[in-house]
Amino acid sequence: MKHIEMGIGYKIPENDILGKKTDHFYCSIIEKRFKKNFVILKNNYEKFLVKYGPLLLEKVLNDFGMDFTYNSNKIEGSTLNRRESWLLLKENITPNHRKFSDALEIYTHMKVYNLLLDSKEELSMKLILKWHELLYKETKHHAGTFRDVNVGIWGSDVKFPDYQNVISLMKELIDWYNRKKEVYHPVLLAGLFKFKFVNIHPFQDGNGRMSRLLMNYLLYKNGHPMLNIEYIKRKGYYTALERSNLQKNELIFVNWFFKYYMNNDYFSYYYGSNELK
Questions:
Q1: Which end of the chain has less Cβ packing within 10 Å, N or C?
Q2: What is the model's pLDDT at position 11?
Q3: pLDDT for 30 beyond 60
Q4: What is d(CA 86, CA 92) in angstroms, rounded to the nearest whole number?
């Protein structure tokens, strides 16, 4: 137990060409520190789905989607506030004093979220490119294509791969996903995929939004509650991503992700499924 707690956030096994030591390390972390909490969350979520039935569930998932859409876009600099985002999505009222492109991206993000709920497709490069195109075809000329320029983050020392390596790195990421989806706990898989994706930064724009959509797709398709990373709590999120990148240690982000996931159960907080514990 102690060596697992010392390891989380600091070090992953070295000289692990086949990844077996890393797999064992991650599975040990889940088993010893987080499995009980994940089981409680999943059980509550399943009872919640049964209790409320299909009609209310549709409303709940729609409400989550609108809140998730607002926060995910706000994190990336959207000028719309929560009320404006909800009015746009519920009443089709576009604020005339905001950037029209921001309003369009709120609308298209919700559209992709709804596709996420209905999709039976396996995660693939084709799916990722299709969703990116739907997100940005009205606002970005590079929608649905991997970047052909190098990118960075203003004010940060974070480094992303050269654009010439993006396609090969994305192929490696999909291969990694296909190998690990039967090995890793779904929450771990979603968090790691999210970090690895954004660390490649495969698109010229939209990497954060796409990474959070894909994270929730993996959670949802595996029967786990989705996660809404809130704009007002973005500082810890940014810090975890940056430290993980700079220290080349994905465990820093994984540690943050697990703790945030366990303490931000949207469905319990807003709809009282915690009464089912």
A1: N
A2: 58
A3: yes
A4: 9
